[in-house]
Amino acid sequence: MILISHSAAALAGAVLAALVLGATWALYAGLRARAATRETEGVNARLEALLAGSPAQRMLVRPDGRLEATQRITDWLGMAVPPRDLSTLTDDAGGLEPDDARALTEQVAATQKAGRPFSMSVRARGSDRALLVIGDRAPQGAYPPGSAVLWFLDTTESQDEISRLQRESGRLRTAFDALTALIEAAPMPMWYRGPDLRLLMVNSAYVEAVEGKDSEDVVARGIELVEGAGLGGPLANAAIARDTGEPQSAAMPATIGGARRMLRLHDMPLPTGGVAGFAVDIEELEQLRGGLKRFGEAQRAMLDRLSSGVAQFGSDRALVFCNQPFRRLFAMKNEWLADRPEFDRVLERMREANRVPDVRDFPAWKAERREWFTAPEAVEETWIVNGTHLRVVAQPMPEGGLLLIFEDRTQQLELQREHGEMQQVRTATLESLSEAVAVFGKGRLQLWNRKFSALWGFDDGFLDGHPQIAAFAQQARGRLARPTQAEVIGDLIRFAAKDRQQRGASVVFADGRHFDASAVPLPDGNALLTMLDTSDRHRIERALRDRNEALEAADRIKTAFVAAMSYELRTPLTSIKGFAEMLHGGFAGKLSDSGEEYAEAILVSVERLGALIDDVLDLTQNEGAPLERVPVDLEIAAANAAEAVAPLARAKHIDLAVELQGSAGSVTGDPRRIREVIEHLLRHAIAGTPEKGRVLLHLDGRKSAARIVVSDDGPGMSAEAVAHAFDRFAQHGIGRSGERALGLGLPLAKQFVEAHGGSIQLFSEPGEGTLVTVELPRG
Q1: Confidence at residue 561, expressed as pLDDT on a 0 to 100 scale
Q2: Does domain 625-777 have CATH number 3.30.565.10?
Q3: What is the layout of strands, in order, in the sheet containing 275-281?
Q4: Which segments does the entry list as coiled coil (predicted)?
Q5: Fewer Cβ neighbours under 10 Å: the N or C end of the chain?
Q6: Which numeric CATH code is attached to 553-621?
Q7: Which strand (E) or helix (H) includes residue 774?
């Protein structure tokens, strides 16, 4: 028997007790761990259920590319079995679109390497399902390093709604942009106000109207289109629109572009509480409205002055206007017309005044007249009332009214009757005329007398057919000496009928008769052709023409004879002058005092006779002779002429004055002839001025011509002498000098002046002196 010591027993008891305690603790810990495990499994089951029912489904991508995907993801992708790796995300039966699969693979690789999260939309292949994939690195510790978690969400309905909203947003944006562009391009000012009525937006027309810098500047400064924002102003109009929710409109004046304009402002309330507005320029409309009103007043005033009665009915068939002749014609009183009577009442009133035709059935007659309002065109009829003929015109108005015009044609019908009688009188008058007369109208022969028919010898059938002017001229060709004159007659008629011009021509018939044809326009638009026999006059004119030619031949012979005699006289005159100068010079011995006086008298007479012969030669030889054309200083020519006649003036103690204005200048012409003109005028003036008289030579000019004036204070000339002052070889009797003279100076002056293209005039009266003016052109 083995004996155990007391200490060993105690130690074994302690060990046993420790083992019991350890087993008990282990049992307790196991039971507790089991309970915790059951609780964790419950939580996991609930989380799995929650995750399975979540709209977001998880897919785990391991580092080696293997996938762990839920069945819902597999169903969403339309795959029969879950995908094993990223490469199997697309196949012929389902999966993702190839492009989406490649993009997802690239995003997952980036997330695994760099831990970069991503979000992208993908589509299931062969369906309209849209999926949103949110990827990120898997939590550390829970999953192997390098894993990625992908959360798939079915966003098909959301994407459809987003697409719809995007399309709607695009459409609204397009419409908004178009509306904005339309508002900006609108020619009228437009604006938008916020709920506090402050300007928030204006267009370019608004900026231009208020002369602002740009829209931002106008909005910032709050520049209003219409001056004044108080009661009745633009803000008050906008406030009413905002508070009542109804559009408002008001006409207000504004200054635009420095001009006062009338604008109609329209304010439209918006659901946002703001107010949109625009302004329409109605200045021209107001002017047109005022002009239309004035036109209506003027038209009514004009209608009151017409002799015809006028009544106007509105679309309601009430009388809206009638003029004074209408009231007088139908005895209408203003008090009764002020109530705007209806059409039927007006007819009844006219019947009461006995101003309508007598009819058996007045109601039926009135009903027929009521149809005038709906007639397709104007209706015209005649009323005979108490011997008065009324022309009634009923004109339906476009707006449904009716315009009635009552014209009293009694006097017109009487005038027509009188006109018919006048036509008969005119026909009888034409037949009694000795001239051939015909009336052409509308291009045809309308009326003629027997003299006209006998003159031309046309058949009655031709004239009765009222031939046209061309046919008449064609028939007339064979009866004229020159057939082309028939066209002249046609032209005369056309000038009178169309151009309203009176023309005439001479016509010679083939038998030698002469007629003066004249076409006169008549007030009614026709043409009157008269033909007067002038055969006797032409015979007289031919005789006178022959006599005139004989006289002109005699005048040429006389002129040639005078010229020849003048040449012949110069030879003995030269001898007389030479011998007289020798006697006066003492070549034949010294002369006595009386002998010297006789010799001097001979020389003076020879000088005068030589001047007369020169004048005669100038008159007979210088007609049409060429002139020298050089610049001529008129003041120098006048001084030389005055110096030449100065001895004559001193001999009679005449004051010869020369007055130069400094404007005479020069003209183009023959210097000798121009000087002779002035000299002849001065000699004529000195010869006609008594001793101690006064002769004035005056020169002035303008841009186009120069003027020479010679005047004297002599006894003047009679009217007969003035009339023949410029006639060649005219005997003026005892002239201004008291002695008989041929008067060659003035005719020569006239001849020389006209050769230079100028003019000469003489003014004189007995006892008033004489004045001669000459105008010479510069050219």
Answers
A1: 55
A2: yes
A3: 199-202, 190-193, 275-281, 259-269, 248-256
A4: none
A5: N
A6: 1.10.287
A7: strand 770-777
- Beta carbons of 682 and 642 less than 8 angstroms apart: yes
Residue 439: in which H helix or E strand, if any?
Answer: strand 436-441
- What does CATH list as the number for 288-408? 3.30.450.20
Q: How far apart are CA 49 and CA 345, in angstroms?
A: 97
Phi–psi pair at 664, nearest 5 degrees: -65, -45
pTM for the model stands at: 0.32
Q: For 643-715, list the strands marked E by DSSP.
A: 655-660, 666-669, 694-701, 705-712
Q: What is the pLDDT of residues 288-303, one digit of tens each?
A: 777 767 776 777 777 7
User: Is the CB of residue 83 less than 8 Å from the CB of residue 96?
Assistant: no
pLDDT above 90: residue 36: no
Q: Distance (Å, rounded) from C-alpha 500 to C-alpha 494?
A: 9
**pLDDT tens digits, 520-567:** 888 877 888 888 877 777 777 777 787 777 777 666 666 565 555 555
Q: How many CA atoms lie within 13 A of 774 on its CB side?
A: 33
Q: How many residues does the chain have?
A: 779
First to last CA, the chain: 189
Taking the alpha carbons of 19, 25, 31, 34 in that order, is the dihedral positive or negative? negative
Q: What tens digit of pLDDT does each residue of 223-275 get? A: 888 876 444 567 888 888 888 888 988 888 887 777 788 888 888 898 888 88
CATH class of the domain at 186-281: alpha beta
Would you kindly state where each structural domain of the chain is located, as residue ranges?
50-154, 186-281, 288-408, 417-533, 553-621, 625-777
At residue 324, φ and ψ (nearest 5 deg) are -65, -45
Q: What is the CATH number of domain 417-533?
A: 3.30.450.20
* Three-state SS sequence of 8-76: HHHHHHHHHHHHHHHHHHHHHHHHHHHHHHHHHHHHHHHHHHHHHHCCEEEEEECCCCEEEECHHHHHH
- Classify each residue of 391-417 as buried b or exposed e, where b means 16 or more C-beta atoms within 10 Å of its C-beta: bbebbbeeeebbbbbbbbeeeeeeeee
Q: Is the pLDDT of residue 212 over 80?
A: yes
